[in-house]
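Give me structure tokens for this 197-residue protein.
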Amino acid sequence: MVVSLIPERVDVLHDRLARARASGAVFARTVAEPPWGLRLAGSIQLAVHTVVRGRGWLWLDDPGSAVELVPGEVTLVRGGPDHHIAQEPGAECLEPEDFRARHAYDGSSEDPRATVFLCGAYGFSGDIGSGLLEALPQVLTLSAAIGDPMREVIALLSYELTAAEPGQPTVLDWLLDVLLVLAIRNDFRRSSTAPRW
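Here you go.
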């Protein structure tokens, strides 16, 4: 009989995610013809954004520090200040209700200038969720290279959001969980300030 003297590896990230697991994620797939801009409240604990087609820009208070959103990337935004997503930095940004009303019929658009993007709102409960979020920067943009599983998850999210199907909220929750884990792994691998765990 062989006895391992190596202690079992503790996966702290798994433990934190399991104890802070979100449910009822709000996700939307949007097609927006220019001009377009959306303001999202800082009360969202964690927002997830990705562009499927076209491009956009995201910023907090200063449009001069906007980051570009392009296909193949995922941007996470922690709660705090409001954030803005638009066709260009500094563009007029509408509240979600007004934005939906203005772009309600853009989904059938064949305008090549239209941008297709996904927005998700993720909520945690308890101190564990807060601790997990505080380990992330305020705005985190990650590239999904060819062959990166994040790219496949983005494609699945986009597909799932094209039509309402039975069980869709559960599928979206799980896909968002997977996307979040992959994003956190990616950030911790490249970060010099990742938590010790």
